[in-house]
Amino acid sequence: MERKTVKQLKKAAKDLGLRRYLRLRKHELIAAMRGQPKGFHFSTSLFRSLQYQS
């Protein structure tokens, strides 16, 4: 899914019957289609900071 464009993801969201997808960003579209809670985004910088804490 990460390789798809936002336009392709929005079409897929529409086809899946998701609502309120037009204003979502790419990572939000992917999370919505995977059924993850809204706002869930594991950013690269957060991931890096967690790696160095252990």
Automatic annotation (TrEMBL):
Alphabetized SUPFAM superfamilies for the sequence: Rho N-terminal domain-like
Highest taxon, organism lineage: Eukaryota
Xref: Pfam families: Rho_N (PF07498)
Gene Ontology terms describing biological process: DNA-templated transcription termination
Residues in Rho termination factor-like N-terminal domain copies: 2-32
InterPro entries (alphabetical): Rho-like_N, Rho_N_sf
Name of the protein in question: Rho termination factor-like N-terminal domain-containing protein
Native organism taxonomy: Eukaryota, Metazoa, Spiralia, Lophotrochozoa, Mollusca
